[in-house]
Amino acid sequence: MWTDAGLLRAGKSFAALIKAQRDAFASTAKGKPKPRPDFPEKALNPAILAAWSFVAGMLHGNETRLKRHYSLSLTTGRDPLNAAALATARHKTDPANYRGLGYRTDAKERGRLTELFYLQTEKGEGITKAIIDVAVAKYHAKQAALEVNKLQAKAGG
Predict the structure, then answer these.
(1) Burial, 108: exposed, middle or buried (Cβ in 10 Å; 0-12, 13-18, 19+)?
(2) CA dihedral (95, 97, 101, 104) positive or negative
(3) Angle, vertex CA 103, rays to CA 75 and CA 6, nearest 5
(4) Taking residues 114-128, what's their average pLDDT?
(5) Residues 118, 59: Cα–Cα separation, whole Å
(6) pLDDT reading at 28 higher than 80
């Protein structure tokens, strides 16, 4: 697997994201509250890993967007995945006990994160609360459109 230059590059880029996420929380300044224990390890959530990898594969033919995707680890001023913003992300259809993006591993979680990583590559400006909200809304809009198509096909029209 590691003889493929593209896979090697993706692996190194994801390893850099893991390191950057951990490093963002490694030295918390005095007076700052200690981060939630899952924030430094956010990149290792199976849904994040799957979505990030899927987007890397989708973009293998688009070098500009792929560079933006891989450079997420270079985010400055906060953690690259913006774990605090992910933790507050929710959709109106989510149950009250939903803890935000990056905690669950189901298909809906992976889909929302895929939308997020793909959307982030449009400008490459990192993950923000606004882009998270757009990604979650896009995921649900696409799911609704798929449901409409399914119902139309069933109705014969």
Answers:
(1) middle
(2) negative
(3) 50
(4) 96
(5) 9
(6) no
Structure tokens at 11: 């692996």
List the helix and strand counts (H, then E) for the chain. Answer: 6, 0
Which residue do the tokens 């259809």 mark?
93
Q: Which residues contact 109 (CB under 8 A, 6 or more apart)?
A: 47, 101, 102, 103
Taking Cα atoms as reference points, which of 98, 150, 91 lies closest to residue 116? 91
Contact 100, 89 (CB under 8 A): yes
Instruction: For tokens 């918390």, name the residue.
Output: 28
Question: What average pLDDT does this structure show over 109-138?
Answer: 95
Residue identified by tokens 């935000």 is 100
CB 79 within 8 A of CB 25: yes
